[in-house]
Design the sequence.
């Protein structure tokens, strides 16, 4: 005897799969954005110049912008001018968004595979082997 699976769970799984695939495609749009990426961080810190009469000795230091990048030789940090900081901030932010989108894409892909497997299991007809003749 062959028992067909109920349609309700498969219908819900199809809806979930369609929703997850839609999210996956929306996430993938980030990969098609044009422009360079800079893998690093731009941040500000304060440093003292060392001159005894400078105001930085009392006020906690001069503000300085830094770029920190991970290279094959280890982490590299460079100071930035205001112009360089303004130019690099959008590129660093684009890199951050790209990495976040990649992580979301991986999670979503795993969920799509899980839902597809569950849908396949839900659609499989159950065969009662005891009710069939042996070959």
Sequence:
């Amino acid at each position: 005897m062959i028992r067909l699976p109920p349609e309700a769970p498969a219908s819900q799984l199809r809806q979930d799969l369609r929703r997850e695939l839609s999210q996956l495609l929306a996430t993938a749009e980030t990969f098609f954005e044009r422009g360079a990426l800079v893998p690093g961080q731009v941040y500000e810190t304060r440093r003292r110049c060392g001159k005894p009469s400078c105001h930085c000795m009392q006020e906690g230091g001069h503000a300085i912008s830094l770029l920190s990048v991970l290279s094959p030789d280890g982490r590299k940090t460079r100071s930035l001018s205001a112009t360089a900081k303004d130019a690099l901030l959008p590129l660093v932010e684009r890199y951050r968004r790209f990495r976040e989108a990649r992580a979301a894409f991986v999670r979503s892909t795993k969920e799509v595979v899980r839902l597809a497997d569950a849908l396949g299991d839900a659609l499989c007809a159950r065969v009662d082997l005891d009710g069939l003749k042996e070959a």
Observations:
- The chain has three helices and five strands.
- The longest helix spans residues 82-123.
- The mean pLDDT is 87.
